[in-house]
Model the fold of this input.
Amino acid sequence: MTQVAPQIQTKNHTGVYHPPLAALRSHSLFADMSDEIFSDFSHAAQELSRSKGAILFMQDDPAEWFYFIVSGWVKLFRETLEGDEAVIDVMTSGHIFGETAILDGGIHTMGASAVERTVLIRLPASLLKSAITKSHDVALGMLASISRHRRQQTQEIENLNMQNAPQRIGCFLLRLCRTNDIEAETTNFNLPYDKSLIAARLGMQCETFSRALNKLRKQTNIDVKGAAVTIPDVADLSEYVCGRCSNEYPCSDLH
Amino acid sequence: MTQVAPQIQTKNHTGVYHPPLAALRSHSLFADMSDEIFSDFSHAAQELSRSKGAILFMQDDPAEWFYFIVSGWVKLFRETLEGDEAVIDVMTSGHIFGETAILDGGIHTMGASAVERTVLIRLPASLLKSAITKSHDVALGMLASISRHRRQQTQEIENLNMQNAPQRIGCFLLRLCRTNDIEAETTNFNLPYDKSLIAARLGMQCETFSRALNKLRKQTNIDVKGAAVTIPDVADLSEYVCGRCSNEYPCSDLH
DNA sequence: CGTTGACTTGAGTCTATTCAAATCCTGTGG
DNA sequence: CCACAGGATTTGAATAGACTCAAGTCAACG
Done:
């Protein structure tokens, strides 16, 4: 069931960090950490690989670990008593999740599962908790990190309230533009994961997603073939999308 | 326009805190603070009274102050480019707002206005910012505070996604039950503010609110006359509401 | 007593959902 | 390499939920 979680060889023979650890080190939560404290984390770190659909933890589980994504995609979700699932977020490499549980009574307030084959580093939640208690810098790093979550969620609430389905999709695409590319006028990229998951992520049904995407195609002459997206004029799309939002277009820093 | 903001007489002749300051002191953000740091805040504190509709700050304003509500009600909102308003939260005495701006680049990410005559204490944002930098305890207090915001927002997103209008109203009423009263089976209370504002707070139109409340009346035999709410059987209501939510009924700690 | 704002109700419309069915795609066994 | 099962996606039709616009009711207030 659970596979063996090997301790990571912290540094190789030339004294360079194991690449995933280097990525971890550069995450904002760890970037300002002293070498001393970081070495506690790096020694306790375990690298995992999980296949599509694997559960990392469930809502209401005691939080033993928190996770850093090395590669792949992870879905965070909450499940209602009636069994429906609300997708809260979908994240990829370079992001951390599950860490907020240490401030929520040590319980995960959402579940997490791998969307496709995913490589992760897991770290003991207790270690982060004590690091925050002991180190002021770590506490400030955590504060910045949670604060980013909060901003993102505020945006999410606004979008759910104000935007209709085509606009939410457009907004999603615009955020992908800035992730994948810079200020090009025309942009090409692939959807990062299944349309059905994007739909869930945006709080709509697959069928609604499909139809809303058609409408968006007509309204903004974007082109979507399979997972391949072409946006001939980003300004055109943002005009259609961003009127119902309180941020001006390059609504950076939210993702 | 702006009225004079008097410095507060910190303590009276018997050395007891001015009552609003005592309330401030017991807020979780200040409760664990050293007397020394708290006195910086209490000396900089200014008491304000604002009439209905008064703007405290606008979205995108530089955050000079953050606020503690002594009495009355305050609305937090965001405004879209097209001019529509999304109500993010409505808060009352004992709560703090505007403090998160110090983690959002010193800019308010939402506007705030008084819903009715409201008494507040305002405190310099810069003071909180430096207190967090200087004091580990204050940083931890802030962490707990933001973390509560985050939990609340996660719940908000779930509710917007999963619940329909009557359920959102029911959920709102259930949360009021636990605020106003304890575990009584039958509960009576008054709606805390206008129905139109509740509607906005729940992300729906006034008309939808009115109709959804009617439906809720029929389905759960609650009784609402004007602002007076009677809930004959709380369990009955929670059964109708909470199936579409990931929390079991006494979903405490969220408000 | 008339005005105003809050609230409700009616009618029509739009959006998103549900249920069903058709297509498309992809990985797998032969 | 090909046919096929099963999931992903799309489309159609009917329905439900929420919104808009318009009009009516009610109560507080000057």
Remarks:
- Residues 194-196, 206-207, 209-211, 214, 226 of chain B lie near DNA strand C (CB under 10 Å from a C1').
- Residues 136-162 of chain B form the longest helix (27 residues).
- The domain at 163-242 of chain B is CATH 1.10.10.10 (Arc Repressor Mutant, subunit A).
